[in-house]
Amino acid sequence: MSTTQLVYDSGNIYIPTGAAVHQIGPTLDVRKYSKIRAVAHDLLAPFGDVQIFFAVKEGNVTIELVEGVLIGAGQRHGTAVFDVPGRELEIFVRDIAAPKRLQLFIFGLEL
């Protein structure tokens, strides 16, 4: 029997404008989860895109996952489900054209 658990709730976080990569939130321990669901909400007026992407770490190896969450202009939320083949999960945003205020939920599927 599998169960889903809330792994992380970012609360209300502010992301400034810029082309830099910003890590949002802590590095999460995901070793007991086979899949992760990320749900993101844009809490400000939906101007410009925001790309949320993920990296997994196993020891000294970091791998950026192909999956991510894109909240496009005119959208208020995005979601993605993906496998987590590592022990730790890091969450990043980049290339922010307009300031954002986001709330991000990460759920883990434990088998």
Largest sheet: 5 strands, antiparallel
- Helix-residue proportion: under 10%
**Structural class designation:** mainly beta
* Radius of gyration, whole Å: 14 Å
Gap between N and C termini, in Å?
Answer: 7 Å
User: Shape, please?
Assistant: globular
| Overall pLDDT confidence | 86
What is the percentage of strand-forming residues?
Answer: over 45%
Overall tally of structural domains: 1
- What is the count of β-strands? 10
Q: Uncertain runs with pLDDT below 50, 5 residues or more?
A: none
Could you give the order of the helices and strands? EEEEEEEEEE
- The number of helical segments is 0
Outline of the structure:
The protein is mostly beta strands and 111 residues long.
Describe the 3D structure.
The protein is mainly β and 111 residues long. It has one domain. The chain is built from no helices and ten strands. The protein has strands spanning 3-9, 13-15, 18-23, 28-29, 35-42, 50-58, 61-71, 77-83, 88-96, 100-110. It is globular. The N and C termini lie close together (7 Å). The mean pLDDT is 86.
